[in-house]
Every structure is written in C-alpha cells, then in structure tokens.
Amino acid sequence: MKYRWNLPTPRLLEIRALRERLGIGELAASCLVERGFSDPVAATAHLDPRLRGLSDPYRLPSMRAAVDRLWAARVAGEETVLFGDYDVDGVTSVAILTEVLGSLGWKVVQFLPDRFSEGYGLTRTAAGNCRAANPAATLWLAVDCGTTATGPIAWLREHGVDTVVLDHHQPDGELPAAVALVNPQLGNGEGTELCSAGLAFKLAHAVLKHGRELGADGFDAFDLRPLLDLVALGTIADLVPLRGENRILARAGLERLGNTRRPGIVALKEVAGVNSPVRVEQVGYQLGPRLNAAGRLESAREAFDLVLCGDAAKARRLAEGLDARNRERQAIERTMSDDAIGAVRSRFDPARDYVLVEARLQWHIGVVGIVASRVLREFHRPTLIIGGEGGEWRGSGRSIAGFDLAAALRACDDLLVKHGGHAMAAGVTVLPERVDELRERLNQIARGSLAPDQLVPELRLDGTVALDGLDAGTMAELARMEPFGQGNPAVQVCIAGVRHARPPQRLGKEGRHWKFSVTDGRGTMECVWWGAGDREVPVGEFDLAAVPETSDYGGRSQIRLKLLDWRPRATA
Questions:
Q1: What letters, b where the CB count within 10 A reaches 16 and e where it falls short, cover 452-469?
Q2: What residue ranges do the domains of the chain occupy?
C-alpha cells in the first residue's frame, strides 16, 4: 500500500529553543515540536514521565460519590459485585479492584459476562444471571461497561441493588440511574483518554486517599505500584493513546512487567516467548492476544484467574491453555480474514465504498474485531464485520482518523438493536435483514464527512535526516520518547536521495521480506522491508520513509532502518 507522505515544515525557532533549553539534538527536538511539545516544561514531562505527574483522582466526574458508596459498603459489610468485561481491559480492571478492595476490607465477588450467551457489557441477560448467582450482593461496581445500560441498572435498582459505573465508553442519550457514573467522557476533559484499567487505578488511588484520611487500618502501608503491570496490560491492549497519564502509566507499568513477580504473568511471558525489557509491541501482539483469547472463544474467567494466580504450577497450566486458545483463535481469524478480504476485493469500488460492511452467517463473533482491523489495514476504510447465527447478528468495527464510528452508528440507531463504543472502535447488534441498509447509511454519512485524500493512509514523518545523523547519541534521545504506540507513534523519518550500497536480498522462508544497504553519500545503513511480498524494490535514486531502530540480533548492536515506504527521488 502506498501512503500520503506528510513532511512537516521545520519550525526552526521552536526547535532551536528546545535544543538550547534541554540540551538535545535536532531530530529529537523536531519530533517533540511536531508532537505538540514545543514548551520546554511540557517536553521535559513527556521525556521523563513520573507517577507524581498523575492528577488527583477526585477530578474525575462522580469519583467522590463512588468512593462514598464503596466506603459505606465496607462499613456495613455488604457484598459487592465487580462486574467486568471479557477483553484485556475489562479483565485487568476487575483484577486491579479485586486486589485492592479485597485486601482492604471489602467483600467482593467477580462476574465476567459470556460474549456468546450474554452479549456485550451489562445486558439484562447478564444482569439476571449475575443476580441469580450473587443474590446477597447489594452493590455492583460495573467496570468497563454500564454507561449505556439504562434498563439493566434500573432493573437492579428495583431489586434493591445500587450500581456504581466505572467506564470510558461514550454515552448514548439517557444516562443510567447509577449511584455514581465515573466516566471521563462526562467531565471537563480530564482523563478522557484513560481506559478502564487506568480508571480502576484512579479509583484505587481515591479509595486509598479516603482510607488514609480516616486513619483506617492497613491503608497507610498499601502500595499501589505493584498494580501497574496490570494497568499497562489493559492500557496498551485497549489501544488508547499513549499520551499524558496513559504514557505515565504505560512507562511505569512496562517496567513492572519486565520484573513482575506475579506467577500468572511470569507464566504468560514464558509461553509467549517474551523477555525483559517488555515493549509495547510484545503486549500488543504476544501477551494481549493470549489474554483476549479466553473471552473470544470461551469464558474470560480463565484470563482473570491467570493474572491473579499465586501458584506457579497452576499458572503454567492456565497460560498453556490460553496459548492453545490463541492458536485456535488465529486459525479462525485467518480463515475469516481471507473470506472477508476476498469478498470486499471482488466488488470494491474506491469511489463508492467509503465504509466496508461485511456480514456472513456463522462468522465467529469472538474474532470479528480482529478481522475488521485486518480488512481496514488492507483497504484503509472504516470497517464493520458482522457474524452470528439466529435472529440477531453481532459485529465489531474499526475506523480511520476523521471518522467517528460511534457517532455514525448513533445516526443509524433506527437500524440497530444495540450499539456502542468509541470513535475508533465500536460494536453493534443488528438484524441480518438490515445489514444492506446499514451499509448504505454508513456510506452516506462517510461520503459527507470524509475527503477522498483521507481514504489514502497518511504517513506522518517527523523530519528529514541524513544517515550520519542517526548515531548512538541520537538513538538514545529518541528512546526517551518511548513507549511508542497509539497516539505516540515511533519516530518516522525521511532519508532523501539514497542509492543501494549493496544489492537487495530476500529474507524469510517464503522470501516475503527484503534486506539491503543504502547510502546517501554521507553514511551507509542497513534497511529491512518487512512484509514486502511482491512489491517493487526501489531502484536508482530514491527517498525512504523509515523508522530508525537499534537491532541487537546475534548479540551485535547496530542501527538500521525499518522501511515504511519509498518514492523516486523528489526533484522539486
């Protein structure tokens, strides 16, 4: 896929000011300026994120009411249900609160709904099943769900159950009659990018502050920092932007993951082949998918049991079970992705198809979100993949910058049984006979809001650099900008006017990758093009768009380029 290159015009005065104030090189200063950190104080905070930079948890909406109701439950000895979700964010959120509240005097039980029989979030079916299993519980804490659950929360209230909601999903019209609705989307902008694992950590912090103010036993000695490994898992796996507080939590949490003593996480790292230090990519592609595999194919309880497991032998069995589930998930996903991509390609019209909606009887609803991501990467269009059986089908969507998928689905409310989510990811329940109408409506909305160039993936580059400018000192400065991920992408640069210094050679069993060396006359560097397949190798003189990275392959450290795209040498 070719990209729309976006090279910034250097803001020389701001770059020079940062270089002088922070003592950093031109590339690092340029990256900071282009990412909105031209102020030296903000730039320093970005380069050196500290836990003390976290804001007061009571700045989140309804946090005081949530803590007051939880404290009343502790005093009265009420049983409290922690009602979660089946993805990594939901599982880690419930695990965090189980560990904190359970250690500090609350009587807690957990309930993780079944994706297949109970649906997404706090549904009426799930509420009924949970109520039947926990009839004595008079307080529910709904985590990573509940903002749109007006009916189920009203039903719980009728049965004498109070509900506190801790959620980050967008509201949809009427709000539920919860005792407290801790959702940053309802506030003044504070914490709007936090996922539920981050919110659970903030709630734990607020509870701890309250207990210390009251002089309650055990609160002074309780340390929240060991929870950060779980916070990092939920934050990175949920693809929230790694900026602001998320950046603080992810940086500290990745350090914890590297040295975690939790038998469950240790076993998970072993079966996934993850060593220290743990990086964002390893959470996103190795640890997260294995935890998600439980809820995608069966019950998320297996993932929850693993992260809090204290026995090494049991943890190993659970981790191996999740690894097997993940392999099964991968096989299902490959088949569905091939089917969906083939179906789209057979009739794709770039001028007509701004949103892709594919539905098929008996497509596995546990992997529709992953398949939607695959289709989106192939065609760079907002994508909704729907599957299921019987009278109601369920689907999951992924979007591109500039198209708010959750808002678009709200405009299709009359066609849907249920919907919810974020601007970039959402879920739906729909009758199969309304799918064609839904596809047409979404495309009408997209054609009115997306410009044609937004349908070509943008490649945002941080600046142009010569090869001899990518030395060990520069790489050390760029490393301070990690962790890279959603909202804080890896540094991407343009190297202009290069030629091959050594002929290209194929890599991999199927020869799907290329390796070659390039020179710009000032330096020479190895370049790797992963997943190139049968795409054309650059020839003559060309410009590269690449990620500079340090490779430690074979025990030898070297700087190399990971190719993103190339173009013939720009002569203008």
A1: eebbebebebbbbbebeb
A2: 4-35+462-568, 57-229, 348-455
Q: In whole angstroms, what is the distance from residue 383 CA to residue 375 CA?
A: 7
Burial of 313 (0-12, 13-18, 19+ CB in 10 A): exposed
Tens digit of each residue's pLDDT (9 = 90 or more) over 168-191: 998 888 999 999 999 999 998 889
Using one digit for the tens of pLDDT, what is the confidence trace for 361-377?
989 998 999 999 999 99
d(CA 510, CA 514): 11
Q: Which residues pair with 514 in a beta bridge?
A: 506, 529
Residue 205 carries which side chain, given as an amino acid letter?
H
* CATH assignment, 4-35+462-568: 2.40.50.460
Q: Which two tokens mark 155? A: 């039903």
CATH 3.10.180.10 for the 57-229 domain, yes or no: no
Fold held by 348-455: Diaminopimelate Epimerase; Chain A, domain 1 (3.10.310)
Taking CA atoms, 439 is separated from 405, 455, 515, in Å, by 13, 17, 42
Closest CA to 248 of 221, 224, 266, 219: 224
The two domains 57-229 and 348-455 share their CATH topology (first three levels equal) = no
For 384-399, the DSSP string reads EEEEESSS-EEEEEE-
The closest alpha carbon to 195, from 231, 225, 224, belongs to: 231
Whether pTM > 0.85 for this model: the answer is yes
pLDDT tens digits, residue range 97-134? 999 999 999 999 999 999 888 888 899 999 999 999 99
